Known about the structure:
The chain is mainly alpha-helical. It has helices at residues 16-20, 35-42, 63-67, 70-80, 91-138, 142-159, 163-173, 182-187, 190-227, 251-256, 260-292, 303-332, 340-345, 350-386, and strands spanning 24-28, 52-56, 233-239, 244-250. The chain has a two-stranded parallel sheet with strand order 1-2. The chain has a two-stranded antiparallel ribbon with strand order 3-4. Helix 5 (91-138) packs antiparallel against helix 11 (260-292). The model is unreliable at 339-360 and 384-391 (pLDDT under 50).
Amino acid sequence: IATNMAGRGTDIKLSPEVKEAGGLAIIGTTRHESRRVDRQLRGRAGRQGDPGSSVFYVSLEDDLMRKFGSERIAKVMDRLGFEDGERIESSMISKSIERAQKKVEENNFGIRKHLLEYDDVMNKQRTVIYEKRRHALMGERIGMDISNVIWDRVVNIIENNDYQGAKEGFFEVLSMEIPFNEDEFENGDRPALEERAFQSAMASFKRKTDRIQADAYPVIKDVYENQGDTYQFILVPITDGRKVIQLRINLKEAYDTEGKNIVREFEKFVMLSIIDDCWKENLRQLDELRHSVQNASYEQKDPLLIFKLESAKLWDSMIDDMNNRISSFLMRGQIPIQVQQQVQEVGEEERPAQRYNEQKDDYDEVRRAQQQAANQDTREQAQQRHQPIVHDKMPRPNDPCPCGSGKKFKNCHGKGLR
């Protein structure tokens, strides 16, 4: 007794007694939607010249028959006089089952073909992303990839903004001042401006990486020379002002290269982490898009065509966001170092507690002053509300109320007066 899983890769050895009794008998309790599965089940009997037999039992209430013409076949059986429970062996039934299986197979083939067409769109994007990721992981041409990212951002900022927008874009994305004035931006040669801005951005990035190397190497040297036999790896923190990452650096390699491998690991980490984050988000959006475009069939539109168009827009948006994030982090990355004066100020154990108490007292004093002012305003408002309205003569009911509310006197202070 087995499920359909036993129909493939299962070889049942027959004993001499079983061979003498007629071999292995396969009894199928239903017909599968695929003829291939039925043939695999039949193939368990009579293998390699062994004797055997197979028979399948089908009910008109099975899912396969119920979906494909069971009512029509049942009416034919009734007219021919067959009774419930009677065994029916008819070529018409067998052909009907085969036609039903063929329809299911064609439908499943169409579904698989449709899924493959959707997956081809994603596979093209996947190929490009994996190539980028391989370059970053292996470090083969990471310097060229970073140059391409910075060049792409420079061109994008200059081509899609006016001077004020370009000025803000350079500061926000590349963390640098725009390297030309407004007159040069408006009247200058764009390719020349782009090349000039690119060279300035690359020089700024080189200064950033040199500073990381210069800040980290003295610490690396001190740790290696004093505790090199204790530590094999060291964590180097780098921040862009919002997020801090911890780079796992080989201590000996960092000492031998004078900190150059720290810059290389920093570039690899930023490229890999941002590529992975953007790609995961893009896959999530593609999955949502794949389900949502199915509604386009109600508008007599091809869902696959819409999926291709929208996925291209998502891809462009992902690349744009990915390049922005990579450029921003690389251009802002630095090792967080405390100012010596600040370190000296909090050097004693008593100072943090003392400064906390002083700040707490100042805060409490401000809170008390704010509370007193609020209470004073409440009392003044209460006195103003209870102050009687004095007028030389009684207003008429439809006259404006003297309190200045804008209501009629009969609906305001004159309410209830007769």
